[in-house]
Write a structure and sequence with these properties.
Elements: E1 11-14, H1 20-30, E2 34-39, E3 53-54, E4 57-58, H2 59-64, E5 68-72, H3 78-89, E6 93-96, H4 102-106, E7 121-126, H5 141-147, H6 168-191, E8 195-200, H7 201-206, H8 212-219, E9 236-240, E10 246-250, H9 254-263, H10 267-270, H11 278-283, H12 285-297, H13 301-310, E11 315-317, H14 321-326, H15 328-332, E12 336-341, E13 344-349, H16 373-380, H17 385-393
Parallel strand pairs: 1-2, 1-6, 2-5, 6-7, 7-8
Antiparallel strand pairs: 3-4, 9-10, 10-11, 12-13
Helix pairs in contact: 1-6
Length: 398
């Protein structure tokens, strides 16, 4: 088994901060790429200090910055830009998630490397893309999730749209960037040429919208929020049990629905011809949901899940993170990895997908700011220690 990962041998320069660009870099590094993360000397990436902390570094950082070589360079200085330019000329991939036009002002845009590194894959992540009327607008994930249509269909009818308690727009965009980079690298093997991968947060979330566009264009239907159900698919819902816990039941296949209603003590509904297919069940959704809600409210969640499992009906609990860590299947599938921070163990999530022959891995957790300065600037660029001292004294690096 090749433990180096499928992207071993590729060098990535990560210029982005916060989440979308860094998550793309995290994905590439997990599957073997050498990821050199450029951070400002004054504090580094803000994620280092966001959310829950252990000491002076966030726990999030240990996961997001895993496998990356932190190099502190001030891109507001000419010397700093010159250093990064040299690094990019030795790279296979660049990831940046600044507002469109920023890297061009530094002389670090894709066109600046057309001659010196024609095979460069240049991934650009922004709110609205590199062109179009909104290109220069600031694009936070929360705003882009709303414009993409994603937020509109979340929540309950008549109430304010709901956001998941996650930066999902950034993460989904990071996955899109990693996918685009991988495809561009594959094409480069044939042509020898690089290209730009243009990822927009609003478009990445738009990519999740299933049949929303053709349903509107073809039938004039605007999909509305539907609480814990999915419009046009019945039954699939979340139900509260007697112990106060919630379970999800997906009984929307025709034969599955029959087994579900028999298990729920409603055989007459299982054999009701009006409910034999999904269109009929959609018409009688309120009746079906009321029956299932009453059944769940009268029984403990564990008892119901066992009954549903025996009836071969897809169902499961609503997990929080403590539940995940305790679950035998999550552990058997290797969804957690353990790293050491100052001698203390810390669990971080594995990254997916699973590859049988060249799997990804966490080789080290996110480290300290500038920890790889000597390795990258000294060994890769050939700078002498005296030159590094001069750069430190000038504030270009730490």
């Amino acid at each position: 088994m090749n433990s180096k990962g499928p992207l071993a041998g590729y060098r990535v320069i990560e210029l982005g901060q916060l989440l979308a660009g860094p998550f793309a870099g995290c994905m590439l590094g997990y599957f073997g790429a050498e990821v050199i993360k450029i951070e400002p000397p004054d504090g580094g990436d803000p994620i280092r200090r966001w959310r829950e902390m252990r000491g002076d570094t966030s726990l999030w950082w240990r996961s997001l910055a895993r496998n990356k070589k932190s190099v502190s360079i001030d891109l507001k200085t000419g010397q700093g830009v010159a250093l990064v330019k040299r690094l990019i000329e030795k790279a296979d991939v660049v990831i940046e998630n600044f507002r469109p036009g920023v890297v061009e002002k530094w002389g670090l845009g894709p066109e600046d490397f057309r001659d010196s590194n024609p095979g460069l894959i240049y991934a650009r992540i922004s709110g609205y893309g590199q062109d179009g009327p909104y290109a220069k607008k600031p694009g936070f994930a929360s705003v882009c999730e709303g414009m993409s249509g994603f937020r509109y269909v979340n929540g309950h009818p008549g109430e304010a749209p709901v956001r998941p308690n996650l930066s999902i727009g950034d993460t989904i965009s990071g996955i899109h960037a990693a996918l685009g980079i991988s495809m561009a690298l594959l094409e480069k093997n044939r042509s020898g040429k690089g290209q730009v991968v243009d990822v927009a947060l609003v478009e990445s979330m738009f990519n999740l919208m299933e049949a929303v566009v053709p349903e509107y264009d073809g039938n004039g239907v605007i999909r509305e929020p539907s609480g814990s159900t999915v419009t046009g698919i019945v039954p699939t819902n979340t139900y509260r049990c007697a112990d106060g816990k919630y379970i999800v039941i997906g009984g929307n296949g025709d034969s599955i629905f029959q087994r579900l209603m028999v298990a729920a003590g409603r055989p007459e509904m299982a054999s009701d011809p009006r409910m034999a297919t999904n269109p009929g069940r959609v018409e009688h959704e309120a009746e079906i949901d009321a029956a299932l809600a009453a059944w769940c409210a009268a029984h403990e969640s564990a008892d119901l899940l066992q009954r549903l499992d025996e009836a071969r009906v897809p169902a499961g609990p609503i997990y929080n993170v403590e539940d995940m860590l305790d679950d035998e299947h999550f552990n058997a599938r290797g969804l957690f990895e353990s790293v050491k921070i100052d001698g203390q163990p810390l669990k971080i999530p594995a990254l997916l997908p699973r590859l049988s022959r060249t799997p990804g891995a966490t080789r080290w957790p996110g480290g300290e700011l500038g920890a790889a300065n000597r390795e990258v600037l000294g060994d890769l660029l050939g700078l002498e220690e005296s030159r590094l001292d001069e750069l430190r004294a000038a504030g270009v690096i730490v």
